[in-house]
Design a protein that fits this description.
The protein is of the alpha+beta class. It is built from two helices and five strands. Helices cover 33% and strands 29% of the residues.
Length: 104
């Protein structure tokens, strides 16, 4: 497993814990379609990454590559989506391809 993948998984776990706390407080949550539509309309953000956590929650990262705004969401299996974190100055960095050709 690559270092980047491990870091992503550890970060995602921390965000899921924070999301559970935010959800328990009843803040920043709503139907998935409404939340993602709001991100697109208000901030021009689109999904750049998503993954499934062990507890069946979906983690999504939304980014506006031009403005640098970003948002991290988690969605429960019942469709309730909660905002975990948001910010500015995102820099979308494409992953470098690993050369698997031993003769190169």
């Amino acid at each position: 497993m690559t270092r980047e993948m491990m870091l992503t998984m550890m970060t995602g776990s921390a965000f899921l814990l924070a999301a559970t706390q935010a959800e328990a407080q009843g803040r920043n949550c709503g139907p998935h379609a409404a939340v993602t539509s709001h991100l697109a309309a208000q901030f021009g953000e689109s999904r750049t990454m998503m993954g499934l956590a062990a507890n069946q929650m979906v983690l999504e990262v939304f980014v506006n590559a031009e403005s640098g705004s970003w948002t991290i969401l988690v969605t429960r299996p019942d469709g309730v989506t909660c905002l975990v974190a948001s910010g500015s100055d995102a820099d979308v960095i494409p992953a470098a391809l690993i050369n698997t050709d031993p003769d190169a």
